[in-house]
Amino acid sequence: MTRDYDGSEYPDAEPSTSLAGVPDGFGRLWTPHRIAYIEQGGGAPGDECVFCTAPTLSDEDALIVHRGELAYALLNLFPYNSGHLLVVPYRHIAGYDEATEAEVAEIGAITQTAMRVIRGTSHADGFNIGMNQGAIAGAGIAAHLHQHVVPRWASDANFFPIIARTKAIPTLLGEARATIAEAWPAT
């Protein structure tokens, strides 16, 4: 048994080497919440692409913090951390290799600005930046390219979602959107 910070006890996690199958040296992080994306085939319910629909809505309704010429940035509806942004081209393309040089440049520029703004507004200690290409690679919405910008702090609860099946997100999405959008430099 292990004691939690408040003194309560919980059973120790079972080591992955004792689970069914051949041990391969990899630890496993179980993320059952991702099954919703997998069962939808990596997209939104129906034929609607959420990343094509978002720019047709108000910034507040779509959680958009910045609109560029070829791409935009919005808060992730299912964030890993507060301020988790997605940088998305307006054009409906699935792969990074399908993006034009201008789209790649603007996605990069928006990503850099997002990092500066989030560091300035919430004092992030670091970032995870990445794209999952295709459903097999973990893309929640595989049909429309998007890049994750996930702020990280030395004190964030990196494994809290896995261990306690809980995500600690200290700000509401609307409040985070307003803070980031207000701090975004004018173009």
UniProtKB/TrEMBL annotation:
Residues the entry annotates as binding substrate: 76, 148
Record-linked Pfam families: HIT
Keywords: Nucleotide-binding
Gene3D superfamilies per the UniProt record, alphabetical: HIT-like (3.30.428.10)
Domain HIT: 50-159
Chain positions of motif Histidine triad motif: 144-148
GO molecular function, one term: catalytic activity
Catalytic-site annotation from UniProt: 146
Origin superkingdom: Bacteria
Protein name as annotated: HIT domain-containing protein
